[in-house]
Design a protein that fits this description.
Peptidoglycan binding-like domain-containing protein; Muramoyl-pentapeptide Carboxypeptidase, domain 1; mainly alpha; flat; PGBDSf; two-stranded antiparallel ribbon; 6 helices; 163 residues; single chain
């Protein structure tokens, strides 16, 4: 006597065949929300250095603040001082360049702009003053090295297995 219900294998195969129909990726159509448009202002800052005064510098300061490079940045400061490329911004850029193994100049060179325009996850590199991009040193040794300890001892004499 055959059962009238489909077997477990047939049900499983049917589900696997139908799965691609129900799961698909959605494409964003709004161009203002794309990552490249959010950092497009960086192209205008290429070649910018300490002492310059540009309208997009507040956006650069906000970007560096978001990832932990500028601690006490607020956008509510006066617009005239906010557009100024000061020593704090230069120091933050130097830290960014060192973290990403770029030429440390403190200026917005093409390599720095390209690195900043690369999409990233959004987690800050520096959190509460701790730079997670640089290796932490503990006790004079890097934590990336393997530390091994031997927990064994030899028997006294020279014991042998019975033959």
């Amino acid at each position: 006597m055959e059962p009238k219900t489909p077997s477990l294998a047939l049900t499983l195969i049917t589900c696997l065949l139908l799965l691609p129909l129900f799961s698909h990726a959605h494409v964003l159509t709004n161009s203002t929300s794309s990552p490249s448009s959010r950092v497009a202002f960086l192209q205008h800052l290429k070649g910018c250095h300490k002492g310059d005064k540009l309208n997009d510098i507040p956006k650069l300061k906000a970007y560096l603040h978001k990832f932990g490079y500028l601690d006490d940045y607020t956008n509510q400061t006066s617009p005239s001082s906010n557009n100024y490329f000061d020593h704090r911004l230069e120091k933050a850029l130097k830290t960014y360049q060192a973290n990403y193994h770029l030429n440390v100049t403190g200026a917005m060179d093409s390599a720095t702009v390209a690195s900043m325009m690369t999409p990233r996850c959004g987690v800050a590199d520096i959190i509460n003053g701790t730079n997670y991009m640089q290796p932490q040193r503990r006790g004079g040794r890097s934590h990336h090295r393997l530390h091994t300890v031997s927990h064994f001892s030899f028997f006294e004499g020279r014991p042998r297995w019975r033959a």
